[in-house]
Amino acid sequence: MTSIDEKLKLMAAGGAGENCDSGLEKDTWAFDSMPGYGPGASAADPIPAAAPRQGALPSEYKQATAAELDSRIRAAKRTLGDRAVVLGHFYQRDEVVQYADFVGDSFQLARAARAKPDAEAIVFCGVHFMAETADLLSGDEQSVILPNLAAGCSMADMANIDQVEQCWQELDDALGAGPDADGLAPVIPVTYMNSSAALKGFCGRHGGIVCTSSNARTVLDWAFERGRRVLFFPDQHLGRNTAKAMGVPEERMPLWMPNKPLGGMTPEQLRDAQVILWNGFCSVHKRFTVRQIEKARETFPNVRVIVHPECPMPVVDAADESGSTDYITKAIAAAPAGTTFAIGTEINLVNRLASENPQHTIFCLDPVVCPCSTMYRIHPGYLAWVLESLVRGRVINQISVGDDVAIPATRALERMLATTP
Ligand code: SF4
């Protein structure tokens, strides 16, 4: 099957098909120097001033052909042997995933890093918050490397530590800080894995916890045993979909708008809230619609529709199932041959699932090619650069979380691990 990168190149050459942003068809180096997050679904998301930018890649990597980069990456990996482990996220392009020693979601990959304590370097082909998490869970002597520093996540950047501290102060003023007569805290902070280490550290300092899309329900149960309310950030959709499935009424899940006083809520709304949702979202998953599901059902009456819980609530409600990338992968593997699946998640993963499972018909709900554009910033040229630098004894693009953040952030992660071993 044609990879997403090849498809975009075909489109650039006038081939059939449509993508969500013509900038995606430009060559990688033009793409990489674009302002903001670059083209793609997150093009309209405001990028924080402090978001990391990548310095210039040496020209030898920009000028190398795909075949040259391939042989250089393979040679560097052979030389490094067990000294370096390459991790590839499910949403990463095939041209990079082919070199990964492990492929998985962000948490599976952080665990994979932990399972390789002898590797000196962990090369994380994902986005910034994932490399931070790998640094938190890996050994002190290990270096975590992000091949392109500009590979961020627009959803993670929708909640920063200053905004969350401000919100916490306002909640404290409105609801008080101490436990009630039942010993429950007024609010327990819960952060999605897709957040900066600073926010994980915030949760660690305030009796909170981290969750993934696989364990969000278990983590919310944990939080409700300890608090009256949950402050859930940064993804409103995962929070809303999970809490709704647990029976929390929508009117008790107000949306916190970070730039408005009291998040834009009345004190009564706040007091009545069970889950305070942060106004963040994933621009890739926000593109899926109920109409796409209806169309899939019109075309394939027996289609099984599975969407990621980062999709908006009406989309999750209209689907047959919703679940994490791990859930989707396992559901497809377990289905009887000949099943037709319409999947609502990032297109690199959907395409890969389709080619790995030829016994089924698998397609992406969104007919328009729209990869996660920040993840897409990891090009084989960057991978060759960081691996060959390691061969020469140089660690570049290291992601390192300072102890002041790492200690409480690890505490919040350990709470999650204890909840869902
Ligand atoms: S798919 Fe969405 S949540 Fe995942 S890395 Fe890309 S922008 Fe972030």
UniProtKB/TrEMBL annotation:
GO CC, any one term: cytosol
Cofactor comment: Binds 1 [4Fe-4S] cluster per subunit.
UniProt entry keywords in alphabetical sequence: 4Fe-4S, Cytoplasm, Iron, Iron-sulfur, Metal-binding, Pyridine nucleotide biosynthesis, Transferase
GO BP annotations listed: 'de novo' NAD+ biosynthetic process from L-aspartate
One Pfam family named in its UniProt record: NadA
Residues binding [4Fe-4S] cluster: C153, C282, C372
The keyword Ubl conjugation belongs to this UniProt entry's keyword annotation: no
Pathways involved: Cofactor biosynthesis; NAD(+) biosynthesis; quinolinate from iminoaspartate: step 1/1
EC code: 2.5.1.72
The keyword Transferase is assigned to this record: yes
Localization, UniProt: Cytoplasm
GO molecular function annotations of the record: 4 iron, 4 sulfur cluster binding; metal ion binding; quinolinate synthetase A activity
Required cofactor(s): [4Fe-4S] cluster
Transmembrane segments: none
Catalysed reaction, written as an equation: iminosuccinate + dihydroxyacetone phosphate = quinolinate + phosphate + 2 H2O + H(+)
Positions with a binding annotation for iminosuccinate: H89, S106, Y192, M193, N194, S213, H308, P309, E310, T325
Function (record text): Catalyzes the condensation of iminoaspartate with dihydroxyacetone phosphate to form quinolinate.
Family from the record: Belongs to the quinolinate synthase family. Type 3 subfamily.
Protein name as annotated: Quinolinate synthase
Organism: Spelaeicoccus albus
Name of encoding gene: nadA
